[in-house]
Specification:
Elements: H1 3-11, H2 28-80, H3 82-101, H4 109-122, E1 126-132, E2 136-137, E3 141-152, H5 154-165, E4 171-180, E5 196-207
Antiparallel strand pairs: 1-3, 2-3, 3-5, 4-5
Helix pairs in contact: 4-5
């Protein structure tokens, strides 16, 4: 059939005359158009019904790949820094051990009291009292307060505080109170400084290792 005849047949075609139950009797050009439409619908259905889900899955996998890549880079960087981290850990353990060695044991407390007393005497102070208080337990350490009462000049007290801070053992000073010795009227020393009385609390510490 010539192309012109097919074109004329399409122009004269009435859609209402189609028998939907017998598409085999449809004109040839109509059959071709119907096949093209069916194929287009099949392709569109396959795309939206199959490819769309695959594209979403592909996007999800791409996001997972990016996350895994970031984790891999971080772990690679940590692995590269592992020798440095181990050296830093060793240095911290050595520093911690050095600090622990500055904390007195039970047997060293009498020697620490003697060191504090000698520091005060060398500074020119007179001791009225140096008393151990009840030990206090914290989470990682034990605290041993020592209540001290001394008398002397302000300059001597400053030298005493400085000397205690420089002891080989860790000792901190707290809650000091300074008042004129013998009441409101202070006696005058040879250097013109008034004699004072100081009450102060020294605290030393022991490591709480769970077994002591």
């Amino acid at each position: 059939m010539a192309f012109q005849d097919k074109l004329q047949q399409l122009q004269n075609f009435d859609v209402a005359s189609l028998d939907m139950n017998n598409p085999g009797d449809w004109p040839g050009p109509v059959k071709g158009i119907a096949l093209v439409l069916v194929f287009a619908l099949a392709v569109a259905g396959g795309y939206f019904g199959y490819l769309t889900g695959k594209l979403e899955q592909l996007e999800r996998i791409a996001r997972q790949e990016a996350t895994l890549r970031t984790e891999f880079e971080n772990k690679s960087r940590d692995a590269a820094n592992l020798p440095l981290l181990r050296r830093q850990q060793q240095e911290m353990e050595e520093s911690f051990g050095a600090l622990l060695r500055q904390l007195p044991t039970d047997t060293e407390v009498p020697g620490l009291l003697e060191d504090i007393t000698m520091t005060g005497l060398d500074a020119g102070l007179k001791f009225s009292a140096i008393d151990l208080q009840a030990e206090r337990t914290a989470e990682f350490y034990r605290e041993l307060p020592i209540q001290i009462t001394v008398s002397g000049t302000y300059h001597a007290m400053g030298a005493f505080v400085s000397g205690v801070a420089n002891l080989s053992r860790i000792v901190t000073l707290h809650d000091f109170n300074i008042s004129p010795a013998g009441g409101a009227r202070a006696r005058r020393g040879g250097d013109g400084e008034g004699e004072l009385t100081m009450q102060i609390q020294a605290r030393t510490y022991r490591y709480q290792d769970g077994g002591s």
